[in-house]
Design goal:
Residues 1-21 form the signal peptide. The protein is of the alpha/beta class. The chain has helices at 2-23, 26-34, 60-73, 89-94, 109-114, 156-167, 180-188, 199-208, 236-255, 262-268, 272-277, 283-288, 294-302, 305-313; strands at residues 37-42, 50-51, 57-58, 79-84, 100-101, 117-119, 124-126, 128-133, 147-152, 172-177, 194-198, 215-217, 225-227, 230-232. β9, α6 and β10 form a beta-alpha-beta unit. The model is unreliable at 1-24 (pLDDT under 50).
């Protein structure tokens, strides 16, 4: 009798698991059926997402989207970019207009638990700062009492700025804009005394100005701003896929796997972790319902994390940002790829 009960229990468990598997992954199924990823990106900020002279989108977030398309389809062109403002990005994701956000979006508790979305995993660490004219005489934010501050509507920077001035018993006047280029224009036209946003975006904005040396980014940072992708809540399969894709790019850097040597590493590697990552053994791809070579393909066509960072916003680019906190943990940074096994 006991063995019969166990057999029935096992059968029900198998049927339930099969039903869950059949129902899982509405986003992945839709993306595969469409044959194209739809990626929500910034409306225009150097280093993350900005069209070049030919109208082709360039930047870190753009390349992360292209790499995800490679992991899915082995084709970096099978992605459509949907520029979204700070105030519309989460609504667009929640309504299904886009499949994923790679859009300079800070992970916060309330965003993660109240919007019907999931913050996936950080890929860039930043902090709120202020930019002022170099000849303003201002060296720290506490000297900006009574200032007019340009801010982007719908960002964490609104709250960070208000919290700083309130906690220091200082007055300020916010001027809100929908887009970064609008705020930058207002700053240059003396409508604002300062522009408050994340330091990477301040560096990108300054780099795009006619006379970058006319502007100074104050050294202080007033918040933690970990950027990461967002997906819709309730689709664990898609959440897992995006999470482990980002992790794979960091893991590739840690293992020394690059776009130039990935084929050789795949052929000659004896390290079990490298063989798993590159699909020599297929279990990672099977777990994500992807080709075993999904990570190897993405690395070959788009590069590892360091390659993407360096060509989009590293010291040799107009943005000119050193890795800083976005170095691997082995080099004193915050990037700590999780074990892929």
């Amino acid at each position: 009798m006991k063995s019969g009960f166990l057999a029935v229990t096992a059968l029900l468990a198998a049927l339930f698991a099969g039903q869950r598997a059949a129902e899982a992954g509405p986003t992945l199924d839709a993306v595969k059926a469409r044959g194209q990823l739809v990626c929500g990106i910034h409306t225009g900020i150097a280093g993350f997402a900005l069209p070049d002279a030919r109208g082709t989108w360039q930047g870190m977030d753009v390349d992360l989207c292209r790499g995800l398309a490679v992991a899915l389809f082995n084709d970096p062109n099978k992605v459509r970019f949907q520029p979204l403002s700070s105030s519309t990005r989460f609504t667009a994701l929640g309504s299904g207009e886009v499949d994923v956000l790679f859009r300079t979006s800070t992970h916060t508790m309330l965003r993660d638990v109240t919007l019907g979305l999931r913050a996936v995993t950080p890929y860039f660490y930043d902090g709120h700062g202020f930019m002022v004219r170099a000849n303003s005489g201002i060296s720290k934010a506490a000297e900006m009492a009574g200032a007019t501050i340009c801010l982007i509507q719908g960002t964490t920077n609104e709250q960070v700025t208000a919290d700083f001035f309130r906690s220091n018993n200082l007055q300020f006047t916010p001027v809100l804009f929908e887009r970064t280029d609008q705020a930058a224009g207002a700053l240059q036209n003396n409508r604002c005394d300062s522009f408050g946003t994340d330091a990477s975006q301040l560096a990108a904005t300054r780099a795009s100005m006619p006379s970058p040396s006319d502007w100074t980014i104050l050294s202080e940072r007033f918040s933690k701003e970990p950027y990461g992708p967002y997906v819709r809540r309730g689709d664990d399969e898609w959440f897992d896929l995006v999470r482990w894709y980002v992790n794979a790019l960091m893991e590739a850097e840690e293992q020394g796997i690059t776009s130039a040597n990935v084929d050789e590493m795949k052929e000659k590697a004896t390290n079990p972790n490298t063989r798993r990552l590159l699909g020599v053994t297929p279990e990672l791809g099977q777990a994500l319902k992807l080709d075993p070579a999904w990570a190897a393909n993405a690395i070959k066509k788009m590069g590892n994390y360091a390659e993407i960072y360096d060509r989009t916003m590293g010291p040799a680019t107009p943005v000119g940002l050193a890795r800083g906190p976005n170095e691997l943990w082995t080099k004193g940074g915050l990037l700590y790829p999780l074990p892929m096994r």
